[in-house]
From TrEMBL:
It is a multi-pass membrane protein. One of its GO terms (molecular function) is transmembrane transporter activity. It comes from Novosphingobium resinovorum. This is Major facilitator superfamily (MFS) profile domain-containing protein. Residues 26-436 form the Major facilitator superfamily (MFS) profile domain. Its main location: membrane. The keyword Endoplasmic reticulum does not apply.
Amino acid sequence: MAEPGEQAAPLPVDTESAPSAAAWYLIFVLTLAYTVSFIDRQVLNLLVAPLKADFGLSDTRLSLLQGLAFTTAYILFSPLFGRLADTGSRRRLLIGGIGLWSLGTGLCGLARGYWQLFFARAAVGGAEASLTPAAWSIIADSFPTRMIPRAFSIFLMGPYIGGGLALIFGGLLLEAAQGWDLGAVPYLGALQPWQVVFLVAGLPGFAILLLMLRIREPARKLAAQDSGQRMPFAQVWRTFAERRDFYGNFYAGMASLVIVLYAFPAWMPAMLMRRFGASAATVGVQYGVAVLVTGSIGVLAGPVIAGWLQRRGRIDALMRVPFFAALALIPISLALAFAPSYEFAMVVATLASFTYSLPQALASSGLQMATPNRMRGISSSVYVFVASVMGLGAAPTIVALLTDHVFADERSVGLSLSVTCAVAAGVSAFFVGRALKGYRRVLALQ
């Protein structure tokens, strides 16, 4: 193993050896980190009602906390962290990012006004931008090629575990905190229950830092056309341009699919509470369990399905599964608009969670396999950039704007969610379908 920051000696593209214990420990810690990041990111979704009450917010202003505040910083820092992942120590980048976003989550709990919370959310977003480019690059260098989709599927369980835990324990903690008497506790006595939820959510990240200290920087695996030296920006952009039939359609298609991935968790709890009168604790536990279980099963099932297709000669299986998942999400999303009961809506949400999670590990793996090593960080950060603009930034606000200004009834949030996700899934299927040919061409060059 190379020391952090050292130039590692080139390795063959794939030794086909079994992953080491250090590689599995890496996946374990990174999955924990990704889980915690999504707890910190999505716990706000269950705090819609108390935040609206305390700050007098409309759905649109609230959606800016869910989307714009987080996403603006996430987008601004993604290219920087992508470049650092390609040129420096990915381990140090991960340690710094985890510490900063955990601190930012705690600051959300200390916010006394809308703009304080807005900028604390921005701090969380900026720091979390370090995780994807560094983690994707370091995972691809730690596992043999045949194992990369499986490794990514484990890592990408993090959002579903984290999103589920944020709903489950966020709802239970919010309900419990309403009965706590913290008046005698210095600093905490004046806090609202939603602030306590944020403070507790920020604590696990600091424990992850201790586990990260045992991670070592792996050597970078280089393909035949890689030089092992830092890739100049001109060559990076030339590669993007030469392979635009893949990269352009891939980024557009997956960014559209991410709208569905973020819109459902952002507004499904509010839909269930507003339309069917469910409590935050009930929705948190039931929808949280659904997201955790079906999301995790979906992301693990993706490589199994892709492997089955590859054994039958489909070399583009890593892109073909996302295409069919996008098609399936169209009728699933439309069904939400006609939900006659809480139970029916939960079934739709569960199907959506499985389906939009199914292609995530495959898309990440396909992007890494189609990209030279020394630009994997930047290609991942571009993915993060476009996915963040559409998913984190646009998805919650599109739904809120439809609710506030088109349907003009907060009980219609389910209809807004249905229309947004059905259209986004259709756009995704169009572009991912176009990316298939480019992906096959790029694989032939590797």
